[in-house]
Each structure stands twice: as structure tokens, then as C-alpha cells.
UniProtKB/TrEMBL annotation:
Transmembrane segments: none annotated. PANTHER family: AB HYDROLASE SUPERFAMILY PROTEIN C4A8.06C, PEPTIDASE S9 PROLYL OLIGOPEPTIDASE CATALYTIC DOMAIN-CONTAINING PROTEIN. Residues 27-214 form the BD-FAE-like domain. Pfam families: BD-FAE (PF20434). Keywords: Hydrolase. InterPro entries: AB_hydrolase_fold (IPR029058), BD-FAE-like_dom (IPR049492), GDXG_lipolytic_enzyme (IPR050300). This is Acetylesterase. It comes from the Bacteria. It comes from Paenibacillus glycanilyticus.
């Protein structure tokens, strides 16, 4: 494994860690990559949803990366979104050097990190972000989204703490509603894989259902798995991350199959 650690220039603290297959030791073909955005209510980045997930995708044959993004007050003004989109640009610009398939970049996020991952697919063409990052076109658009128990809505079923940290507003108002992603889905949103548990006590399943409904309305391909039992923050659902749940753990294998089915698997 080859590790790369990058400090993002647009942030005082965000970092991008890459887990790359060594091209000199293994097959010479380039590989897809999965960018992981861990959860933590935009208050912190959960390590259980960071490196263990990246290693799982690495072991499945993918390159992987983890973005540890800005949180708390530093998350205001779309800062995590800018960092995530800048990360996608870095991956594409270094695709040849790192042997990445530039048209096979998926973003995988959990909880608030699921909100951030979904933001890359719904806000990559947000005018303020385009101006800030000085880009045009779809160079920052991910090719797929993988969302685990994602925070989505600022409305009735909101995870209010996440929206407070990202927007500065404690209420369902115009400020927090700017980040309500079920309202931002368009036909340009990438194909999406979503999994959730029906009895999640922290981020209710309605978040996933609202996003699915918006995807269907705009004819965006998706796959969704709602498991019947499981606490919040399951990550890989195994002993390594201290959330053993053999049934929900099927999400990872299903996700790999889904990536293959939409043409984002290994070549």
C-alpha cells in the first residue's frame, strides 16, 4: 500500500489521506477510487467511519481516500463542500500519477458525512462554490454516491445538530434549508447507493426516503437497502468498528456489486 497525505490549500485543517495500490507490485491497470467522508454531526470526523472503510474498499481492489473535513464553526459557509469538491479535483488532476480511473470516482459518506457526500452530487454546480473554487464544467462532479444512514433534510426529520453546525441556524429556516439536499436533486445527480436502518434513533430513515423520492422524481438511478434493526453509526457493522451486526454488514458486498452493475467496478 502507498499512502499519500495532503493538506488542502483551501482549508486551515482539512486533510486528504490516500490509500493507493502500488502499481509496481500489482497489476498495471488503473483503478476506481472511493473518497470516504466520515460522520460526526459536522462536530468531528468519526474515525470508525474513516480508515476502516477506506481499507475495506482497498481490500476490494479499489483505491481509497479519506477526507477529514472542517467541523464546528469552521464548517460554515459551505467549507466542507468546498473541501470535498477540491478533493475530487485533486484526484482527477493526479489520476495519471496515482493510476486512478478519472471517470470512476465515488464518494462514500456516513451520517453527516453522508450529507457531505450527497452534497458533492447535488452542489457541485452551486454558483458560489464554482466561483470560490474557480472552475467550470463537471470536473468536480463525482461519478457515484454511496450514502450510509445519511443526514439529508432540514425539515421535520432533521438531525438538528448537523444542520446547526453546517448552517449556524438552530431552526428549520431559510439558512438551514439551503443545505436540505432532497430539494437539490436534479437529473444531473450521480447514481446513488443508500442504506439505512428502519429504527435508527438519531438520523431517522425518512432522510433516506426523502432523498430516494427525489432521485426517483428526477429519474436518477439508485439502489436502496433499508435494514430492519440497527443502531446509528454502524459503519462496517463488524467487530473492528465495535458495531457487530451481521445482517446490516451485507451493505458493503451489495455496494460492491452495485458499483460493478453501473460500470464503476474494477476493469
Amino acid at each position: 500500500m502507498k499512502l499519500e497525505n495532503i493538506k488542502l490549500e483551501i482549508s486551515s485543517g482539512a486533510t486528504l489521506t490516500l490509500y493507493l495500490h502500488d502499481i509496481m507490485e500489482l497489476r498495471e491497470k488503473a483503478r476506481p477510487i472511493v473518497l470516504v467522508t466520515p460522520g460526526g454531526a459536522y462536530r468531528f470526523c468519526s474515525e470508525r467511519e474513516a480508515e476502516p472503510v477506506a481499507i475495506a474498499f482497498y481490500n476490494a481492489g479499489y483505491h481509497a481516500a479519506v477526507l477529514r473535513y472542517s467541523c464546528m464553526e469552521d464548517a460554515r459557509n459551505m467549507q466542507p463542500m468546498a473541501e470535498a469538491l477540491e478533493s475530487i479535483r485533486i484526484l482527477r488532476e493526479h489520476a495519471e500519477k496515482w493510476h486512478i480511473l478519472a471517470d470512476k470516482i465515488a464518494v462514500c459518506g456516513f451520517s453527516a458525512g453522508g450529507h457531505l457526500a450527497a452534497s458533492t452530487g447535488t452542489m457541485w454546480n452551486e454558483p458560489a462554490l464554482m466561483k470560490r473554487l474557480n472552475y467550470e464544467g463537471d470536473i468536480l462532479k463525482p461519478n457515484a454516491l454511496i450514502l450510509g444512514y445519511p443526514v439529508i433534510t432540514s425539515g421535520e426529520f432533521a438531525h438538528r445538530e448537523s444542520f446547526y453546525h453546517i448552517s449556524g441556524s438552530p431552526e428549520d429556516d431559510e439558512t438551514s434549508g439551503f443545505y436540505s439536499l432532497e430539494k437539490r436533486v436534479t437529473g444531473e445527480t450521480p447514481p446513488t447507493f443508500i442504506w439505512h436502518t428502519e429504527d435508527d434513533p438519531a438520523v431517522t430513515v425518512e432522510n433516506a426516503l426523502l432523498f430516494i423520492s427525489a432521485l426517483r422524481k428526477h429519474q436518477v438511478p439508485f439502489e436502496c437497502h433499508i435494514f430492519n434493526k440497527g443502531e446509528h453509526g454502524l459503519s462496517l457493522c463488524n467487530e473492528e468498528v465495535n458495531t457487530p451486526n451481521p445482517h446490516c454488514a451485507h451493505w458493503f458486498g451489495l455496494c460492491i456489486e452495485w458499483l460493478d452493475s453501473i460500470g464503476l467496478g474494477l476493469e
